[in-house]
């Protein structure tokens, strides 16, 4: 049963870290019974709230009606209100997505902007409250199941999020029937969204047709699904702990680059739970699991990319490399020679040539050129930003020197030093680009073929 006492009791249990009287709440209010009841409860508690309403402009006069209703409702409660009108259909068409996904992106992006603006003005925390309830939870779990999901998808909508947005969902344990009963008992008016009765959307089809039919066979279907979801949350915690521990033990840092030995990964190859537990942290999607497995068997230099990271097969390891713009990391295949490929990079341009070592060959001493013994090259080469743990054998010194100390001796500006890159053969640096080659890769009288690399620094 939903009332002020049960609402407070659930709040204390679910959100002990959110003080009802020392937080500014952004209430997502559509005008429907769920969000109106949530606002009524928060008003009764005397919490500091701002009502936020999005007019998606999808239902013509009905959308205008909803906006006007929410304005009047906020006035009755004496709560400040923010309204955001948007052309949702146009947004969906522009970005090639469904209407519901477009509405979700628009809504949460705006909530983020509101949160940021309030946080600048307030000394108290800002939390967004949405009115998702138990019926929404059941529908979401079924949708995830039908699409195909792992354990996490079957745990449903989280009561709390603290990532991009700070969100709480205090009605998640209460059913739609309980919410309507509270509204009726307290004489609360609300508006009905006519689109909820249509079965154009998957969620509506599940709500209006599937669940009522299943309930004729299993009357407790909603309660059973919610109970199973709670048990799966416990199982997910145990699985997550086990998987995280496994990968933590396997991590190595080679030249400052996070790496996992392929032999270690092979212990759980084929186990999607372990693989997903790792790759989801780096922007990969479940559909890429099989492609990730292929990288384990691929040739050196092969990689798979997400929006934020690359997994690269390198020297018996899978290197995990960020796509951040301030770092360079590129594998260079041998065909750059045959095709006379020019590589345009962030800090300059590289060109590769294979030459015969003849008596007439002119060796230019300008440090923008590197002349390396081609027989000592092990392809692909690796072009990357330098790391503090790097060392090499500067030409003419014949002894190891930390790259950090070498660069310090050049009296470079901090900005210039930050842009320095290296080319390495396996795990050995052959050239500090534009500065000095490594003595181990220099040409000698016995060299038959040499690799000439030209560097043109960007200006």
Task: Write structural notes for this entry.
By secondary structure, this protein is an alpha+beta fold. The protein folds into 3 domains: 4-227, HUPs (Rossmann fold); 251-322; 329-457, no CATH class. The chain is built from 15 helices and 22 strands. It has helices at residues 4-14, 33-45, 61-77, 88-94, 99-121, 134-147, 176-185, 202-215, 221-250, 262-265, 272-279, 289-297, 335-338, 403-409, 414-418, and strands at residues 24-28, 48-55, 81-85, 126-129, 160-162, 166-168, 252-254, 257-261, 303-305, 309-314, 317-322, 329-332, 342-344, 348-356, 369-373, 381-385, 391-392, 401-402, 421-425, 428-432, 436-437, 449-457. The strands form 5 sheets. The chain has a 6-stranded mixed β-sheet, sandwiched between helices. Strand 1 (24-28), helix 2 (33-45) and strand 2 form a beta-alpha-beta unit. Helix 4 (88-94) packs across helix 5 (99-121), helix 6 (134-147) crosses helix 8 and helix 9 crosses helix 11 (272-279). The longest helix is centred in the middle third of the chain and has 30 residues, at 221-250. The termini are far apart.
Index terms:
459 residues, alpha+beta, Rossmann fold, 3 domains, six-stranded mixed beta sheet, five-stranded antiparallel beta sheet, 15 helices, 38% helix, 22% strand
Average per-residue pLDDT, rounded, comes to 91
Annotated CATH architecture of the largest domain = 3-Layer(aba) Sandwich
Sheet with the most strands, sense and barrel status: 6 strands, mixed
List unreliable stretches of 5+ residues. Answer: none
Span from first to last CA? 69 Å
* CATH class designation of the largest domain: Alpha Beta
Q: Approximately what portion of the residues adopt beta-strand conformation? A: 15-25%
Report strand order across the widest sheet. 3-2-1-4-6-5
Structural class based on helices, strands and sheet pairing: alpha+beta
**Helix share of residues?**
25-40%
Number of helices: 15
Number of separate strands: 22
Number of domains: 3
Form type? elongated
Could you please say which CATH topology of the largest domain applies here? Rossmann fold
Rg result: 30 Å
């Amino acid at each position: 049963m939903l009332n002020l006492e049960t609402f407070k009791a659930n709040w204390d249990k679910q959100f002990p870290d959110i003080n009802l009287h020392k937080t500014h709440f952004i209430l997502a209010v559509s005008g429907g019974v769920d969000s109106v009841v949530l606002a009524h409860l928060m008003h009764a508690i005397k919490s500091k709230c701002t009502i936020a309403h999005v007019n998606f402009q999808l239902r013509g006069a009905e959308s205008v009606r909803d906006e006007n209703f929410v304005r009047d409702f906020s006035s009755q409660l004496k709560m400040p209100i923010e309204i955001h009108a948007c052309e949702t259909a146009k947004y969906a068409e522009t970005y090639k997505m469904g209407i519901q996904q477009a509405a979700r992106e628009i809504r949460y992006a705006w909530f983020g902007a509101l949160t940021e603006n309030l946080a600048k003005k307030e000394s108290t925390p800002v939390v967004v409250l949405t009115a998702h309830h138990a019926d929404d939870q059941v529908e979401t779990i079924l949708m995830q199941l039908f699409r195909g999901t792992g354990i996490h998808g079957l745990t449903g909508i989280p009561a709390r999020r603290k990532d991009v947005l700070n969100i709480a969902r205090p009605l998640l344990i209460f059913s739609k029937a309980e919410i309507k009963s509270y509204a009726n008992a307290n004489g609360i008016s609300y508006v009905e969204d006519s689109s909820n009765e249509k079965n154009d959307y998957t969620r509506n089809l599940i709500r209006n047709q599937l669940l009522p039919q299943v309930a004729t066979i299993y009357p407790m279907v909603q309660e059973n699904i919610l109970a199973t979801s709670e048990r799966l949350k416990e199982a997910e915690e145990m699985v997550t702990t086990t998987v995280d521990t496994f990968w933590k033990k396997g991590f190595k840092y080679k030249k400052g680059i996070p790496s996992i030995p392929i032999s270690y990964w092979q212990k759980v190859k084929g186990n999607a739970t372990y693989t997903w537990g790792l790759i989801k942290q780096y922007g990969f999607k479940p559909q890429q699991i099989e492609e990730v497995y292929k990288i384990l068997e691929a040739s050196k230099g092969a990689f798979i990319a997400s929006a934020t990271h690359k997994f690269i097969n390198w020297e018996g390891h899978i290197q995990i490399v960020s796509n951040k713009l301030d770092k360079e990391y590129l594998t260079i295949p041998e065909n750059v020679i045959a095709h006379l490929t020019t590589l345009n990079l962030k800090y300059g341009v590289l060109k590769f040539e294979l030459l015969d070592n003849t008596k007439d060959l002119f060796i230019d001493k300008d440090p923008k050129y590197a002349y390396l013994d081609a027989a000592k090259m092990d392809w692909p080469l690796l072009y990357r930003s330098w790391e503090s743990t790097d060392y090499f054998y500067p030409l003419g010194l014949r002894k190891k020197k930390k790259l950090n100390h070498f660069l310090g001796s050049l009296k470079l500006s901090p900005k210039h030093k930050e842009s320095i890159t290296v080319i390495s053969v396996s795990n050995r640096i052959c050239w500090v680009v534009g500065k000095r080659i490594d003595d181990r890769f220099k040409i000698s009288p016995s060299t038959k073929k040499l690799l000439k690399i030209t560097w043109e620094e960007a200006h």
